[in-house]
């Protein structure tokens, strides 16, 4: 039976679940013309959940017989998830109205998806990892097909669903094999069983671990499990694509941190080698294909793949520096990537979106503020100082060098140089090329402006004054690594 | 008991192969029912009565109904006019499937699964009232969070089904 | 214990045997007493004496699909009632609250489906 203390410790999740239910209910009562109230209502829920997270800071609570852990690590990741959700809802408000898909379900499913991510971030049991992942994924399958009459959206949803269901199968099979060899699904229990049972080289356990890795790799889109990403980002509504690129990745990495570090730390020798190979493939694959893209959403899709490769470096480094830089990277990535997607959302004429790179020509003179924001996001994604992206890369590559992965860090730097080419090309097009033919228009809305403003502030702030967030990220690790 | 395992396992395997081999999708679906029922019997042999019941109620019942609906909805009837667009996929699938089967076989032969310390033996389960009772007690104590999250998961699936399949929202 | 399922096995064998015996008897009788003639009409599905109109494999409306999916989801809800029902007394009021919460969430789902009109024919 859950005690009052347990219920308080899991209150952010409870608040978010109740809020999603309330949105679902309010949607039934509110007239179609006033649906945008739901956006503000949802944002209020995110704020409340975030406030609950802050009040819990510094505690380490092991809840529900070890199934859920509320420590600083999960709180930090939850805050990143909530922030990204808030930004994407600000982007979505005007967008879904203009594209005639302003249904309350959009907000309900977004909130539930975030809840799933938060469950993954605090999971202490493989079952909770799986259930959180399914709540997140099911919501995203539907959200990516939310423009229901659009063939591209249907394709995106179907592709994501089929491949995602397949990946869930891998994950579940992995869980089953791990359970078969250790007799438990509790992450802490698995570590104990490995020590006590002498399971270090157990083939069944290794195979289970491998399948778990495949399932998670798919969700965070590591090469060679990335095929779905560009098609899904392209077909999904733009705010959803931005949301997925941050929330699904952050939640996937959160679960990976929990699984690999709490349960399989003793097998680190086996999985770091495999993950460093995946990191190399992911960085290079993402960046090389991104070079050839002419569609902004596909470009950002491949760029997000490459970023997952960089983040993986911090997991492989396996020291406290590496892990805190993973957290910092996720926060910085959330701001700059959602910011870039917000600019894409802004660049539309009511229903018509301007997605081709060439549509950005002349943006510098026509909409200087928008172009400036985009330039900041691109510079940050490329890793140019003094932006958040630079420091995030700096920390994570440094951690890799410190852990003895100098070769991987060098390859990552080379990759960043390669990536700078396509990020800077966007800036060149915006400022130095004249538009040919139709001129891309911009749609104003206060909420969208606020989203871009917040993303710019975050990107610059984390680049110039990172100390507070770095300290927060370092503090996030203490109870987790200590245990 | 041992002999009865084979009496059930062989039809289970044969019907599973049949599901893949049949040209007519309705036959495939019906063979799948046979397969699922055979697996349900295997669960009974393992003393997992609850899982066996779930297998019959959810899989052989509800999910097969959905399968047949989809077959009828798409008008798939017989596999006529279906052309493989990727001629290479059969050999490649065989290669990788075979490799996975060999890997699994090697792993299984290398592993001796020992009872984990503290795990319940079939005798214990019987003494505690039986499989379903033990699952019930665990579900509402140790696995309470997972149980409640399941209701959220089902709710998301309900909303998702309505959003994707209903004509007017 | 699996042995307890012997009656079900016997029941199953009798059921299958009954069906097989019926088919076998009918074939045997027709083999003994009837001169067989091939005719197309004999191959038409038996529809209580009516002539079938068109093939049986018609495409279903997509709305059936929504009904089927909702059926499965609520079916899974019911499955969770089994393990709860057998230990209901032991769990006492706590079990009732825990199950109540589970049912409540899905009940809200039912209200949602109802109000959205997903159970009505469009």
Keywords:
heterotrimer, A: 483 residues, mainly alpha, 20 helices, C: 122 residues, Methane Monooxygenase Hydroxylase, Chain G, domain 1, 4 helices, 66% helix, flat
Descriptive account of the structure:
The complex is a heterotrimer of chains A (483), B (169) and C (122). Chain A is an all-alpha fold. Chain A has one domain (4-482). Helices cover 77% and strands 2% of the residues of chain A. Chain A has 20 helices and four strands. Chain A has helices at residues 4-9, 11-29, 37-56, 72-98, 104-121, 126-144, 151-182, 187-197, 203-220, 228-235, 238-263, 268-290, 296-317, 320-346, 363-366, 368-382, 388-402, 406-432, 446-464, 467-482; strands spanning 61-63, 68-70, 348-349, 352-353. A two-stranded antiparallel sheet of chain A has the order 1-2. A two-stranded antiparallel sheet of chain A has the order 3-4. In chain A, helix 3 packs antiparallel against helix 4 and helix 17 crosses helix 19 (446-464). The radius of gyration of chain A is 21 Å and the shape is globular. Chain B is mostly helical and 169 residues long. Chain B has seven helices and no strands. Chain B has helices at residues 2-21, 25-45, 49-74, 89-110, 122-127, 131-139, 144-165. Chain B is globular and about 55 Å long. The mean pLDDT of chain B is 86. Chain C is mostly helical and 122 residues long. Chain C has a single domain (2-116), classed as Methane Monooxygenase Hydroxylase, Chain G, domain 1 (Up-down Bundle), CATH 1.20.58.1610. Chain C is built from four helices and no strands. Chain C has helices spanning 6-33, 62-79, 81-86, 88-116. The radius of gyration of chain C is 25 Å and the shape is flat. The model of chain C has no long low-confidence stretch (mean pLDDT 86). At the B-C interface, helix 2, helix 3, helix 6 and helix 7 of B face helix 2, helix 3 and helix 4 of C.
Principal-axis shape of chain A equals globular
The overall average pLDDT of chain C, rounded, is: 86
Query: Distance between termini of chain A?
Result: 25 Å
Oligomer: heterotrimer
- Main-sheet strand order of chain A equals 1-2
> Compute the gyration radius of chain C: what is it?
25 Å
End-to-end separation of chain C in angstroms reads 50 Å
**Count of strand segments of chain A:** 4
Largest sheet of chain A, in brief, is:
2 strands, antiparallel
Which structural category fits the helices and strands of chain A? mainly alpha
- Please estimate the helix content of chain C: 55-70%
- What order do the SSEs of chain C take from the amino end to the carboxyl end, as H and E? HHHH
Count of helical stretches of chain A:
20
- Put simply, the count of helices of chain C is 4
**How many domains of chain A?**
1
Mean residue pLDDT of chain A = 92
Query: How large is the share of residues in beta strands of chain A?
Result: under 5%
Approximately how much helix is present in the residues of chain A? over 70%
């Amino acid at each position: 039976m859950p005690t009052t203390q347990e219920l308080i410790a899991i209150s952010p999740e409870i608040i978010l679940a109740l809020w999603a239910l309330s949105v679902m209910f309010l949607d039934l009562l509110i007239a179609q013309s006033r649906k945008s109230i739901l956006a503000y209502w949802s944002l209020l829920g995110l704020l409340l959940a975030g406030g609950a997270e802050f009040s819990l800071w510094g505690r380490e609570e092991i809840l529900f017989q070890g199934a859920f852990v509320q420590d600083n690590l999960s709180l930090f990741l939850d805050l990143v998830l909530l922030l990204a959700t808030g930004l994407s809802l600000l982007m979505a408000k005007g967008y879904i109205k203009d594209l005639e898909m302003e249904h309350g379900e959009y907000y309900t499913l977004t909130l539930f998806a975030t809840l799933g991510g938060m469950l993954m971030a605090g999971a202490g049991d493989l079952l909770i990892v799986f259930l959180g992942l399914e709540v997140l994924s099911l919501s995203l399958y539907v959200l990516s097909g939310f423009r229901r009459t659009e063939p591209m959206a249907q394709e995106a949803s179907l592709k994501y669903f089929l491949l995602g269901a397949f990946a869930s199968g891998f994950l579940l099979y992995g869980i089953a094999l791990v359970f078969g060899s250790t007799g438990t699904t509790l992450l802490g229990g698995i570590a104990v069983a490995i020590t006590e049972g002498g399971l270090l080289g157990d083939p069944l356990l290794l195979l289970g671990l491998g399948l778990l890795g495949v399932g998670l790799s798919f969700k965070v889109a590591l090469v060679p499990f990335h095929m779905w990403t560009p098609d899904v980002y392209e077909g999904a509504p733009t705010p959803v694509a931005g949301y997925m690129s941050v929330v699904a990745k952050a939640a996937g990495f959160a679960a990976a941190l929990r699984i690999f570090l709490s349960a399989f730390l003793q097998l680190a020798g086996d999985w770091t080698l495999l993950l460093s190979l995946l990191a190399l493939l992911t960085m290079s694959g993402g960046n090389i294909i991104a070079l050839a893209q002419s569609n902004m959403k596909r470009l950002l899709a491949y760029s997000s793949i490459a970023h997952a490769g960089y983040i993986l470096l911090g997991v492989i480094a396996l020291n406290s520096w590496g892990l805190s830089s993973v957290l910092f990277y996720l926060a910085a990535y959330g701001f700059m990537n959602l910011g870039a997607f917000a600019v894409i959302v802004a660049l539309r004429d009511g229903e018509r979106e301007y997605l081709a790179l060439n549509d950005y020509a002349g943006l510098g003179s026509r909409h200087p503020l928008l172009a400036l924001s985009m330039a900041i996001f691109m510079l940050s994604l490329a890793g140019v100082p003094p932006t958040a992206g630079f420091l995030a890369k700096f920390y994570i590559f440094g951690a890799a060098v410190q852990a003895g992965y100098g070769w991987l860090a060098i390859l990552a730097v080379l990759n960043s140089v390669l990536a700078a080419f396509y990020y800077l090309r966007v800036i060149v097009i915006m400022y130095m090329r004249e538009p040919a033919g139709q001129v891309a228009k911009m749609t104003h809305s206060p909420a969208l402006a606020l989203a871009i403003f917040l993303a710019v502030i975050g990107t610059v702030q984390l680049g110039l004054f990172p100390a507070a967030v770095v300290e927060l990220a370092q503090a996030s690790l203490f109870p987790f690594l200590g245990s | 008991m041992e002999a009865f395992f084979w009496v059930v396992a062989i039809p289970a395997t044969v019907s599973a192969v049949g599901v893949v081999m049949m040209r007519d999708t309705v036959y495939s679906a019906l063979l799948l029912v046979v397969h699922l029922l055979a697996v349900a019997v295997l669960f009974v042999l393992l003393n997992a009565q609850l899982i066996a019941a779930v297998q019959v109620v959810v899989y052989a019942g509800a999910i097969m109904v959905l399968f047949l609906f989809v077959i009828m909805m798409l008008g798939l009837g017989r596999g006529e006019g279906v052309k493989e667009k990727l001629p290479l996929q059969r050999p490649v699938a065989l290669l990788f499937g075979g490799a996975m089967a060999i890997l699994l076989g090697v792993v299984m032969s290398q592993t001796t699964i020992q009872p984990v310390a503290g795990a319940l033996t079939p005798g214990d389960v019987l003494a505690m009232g039986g499989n379903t009772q033990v699952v019930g007690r665990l579900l509402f104590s140790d696995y309470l969070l997972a149980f409640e999250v399941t209701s959220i998961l089902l709710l998301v699936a309900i909303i998702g089904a309505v959003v994707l399949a209903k004509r007017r929202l | 214990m699996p042995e307890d399922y012997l009656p079900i096995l016997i029941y199953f064998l009798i059921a299958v045997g009954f069906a097989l015996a019926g088919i076998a008897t009918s074939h045997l009788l027709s083999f003994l007493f009837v001169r067989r003639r091939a005719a197309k009409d004999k191959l038409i599905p038996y529809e209580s004496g009516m002539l079938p109109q068109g093939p049986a494999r018609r495409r279903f409306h997509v709305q059936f699909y929504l009904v089927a999916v909702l059926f499965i989801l609520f079916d899974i809800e019911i499955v969770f009632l089994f393990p709860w029902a057998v230990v209901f007394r032991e769990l006492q009021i706590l079990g009732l609250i825990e199950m109540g919460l589970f049912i409540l969430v899905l009940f809200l789902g039912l209200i949602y489906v109802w109000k959205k009109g997903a159970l009505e024919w469009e």
